[in-house]
Amino acid sequence: MLDYVSLSSLMYALSGFAVFFFVFWCGMWFIHITAIFYGKYKLHRKVPLLPQEMPYPGVTIIKPLTGVDPNLYSNLETFFTMSYPKYEICFCVEDDMDPAVPLVEKLCKKYPNVDTSVFIGGQVVGVNPKINNMQPGFKAAKHELILISDSGIRMKEDTLLDMVNHMKPDIGLVHQMPFTWDRKGFAAALEKTYFGTAQARIYLVANFLQLPCHTGMSTLTRKSIFEDMGGSLKVGRFLFPLV
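RESULT FIELD:
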C-alpha cells in the first residue's frame, strides 16, 4: 500500500512537471513566433514624412558622456547628420578633463550649423550618477520633446523623424529597439547576440501586447511630464530604471 501511494504521488508530481514544462515550451514558442511576425510587420518600413503644412516640433537631445567608448566618434557623428529640421544636442560631461570632450569639440567645429551645447559638471538630484550628469542639459533644454540618448546609440538619417512620428498626443514615451554595432571582443559579441535575440523578442512582444516595457538607452519623452513632477530628472529612478 505504501509503495502504491508513493508511486502514485511520484506519478502525480511528474505529471505536474510535464504540464508546467509544456506550458513553458508553448509560451516560448508564442514569444518566438510573435516577435518574428511582429518584427517583420513593424521594422524596416519607410518612414513617412510629416505633412509640410504641419510644423516640426523641436527636439532637445541630451547625451550623457563619460570616457571614450568604442565607435564613440562615429556614434556621435550620426546625430549631426540627421534629416530633421529643428533639434539641439546637449552634451553632458562630469569633468572637463574627460577624453570625450575633445571629440565633441571636433564634431561641433565640423558641423557648425547644428545647435550644440556642452555642460561640464552635473547636479545631484538623486542616487543615479547618470541622471545627475544630465540635469544641467535638461534644465537648459529649449524644446518640449526630450531625447535621452546613451553614448553607444547610433542614428539613421530618419530615426528621429520616425520617433517623433510615433509621439502622438496620447503617448508620453517612445523608445528605440536596442541593437549593438559591431565591436571587437567577446563581451561585444555577447552583447550583440543578447540584444539581437532574447532582449529584442521581449521588447517586440511587449510592444505587440501594449505592455509597459522600455529601455532607457534611447528615450523620447516630453519635458512637461518632468515639470509637472517638480521640474527635475530625479524622477528618472521611476521612468528610467535601467539607466
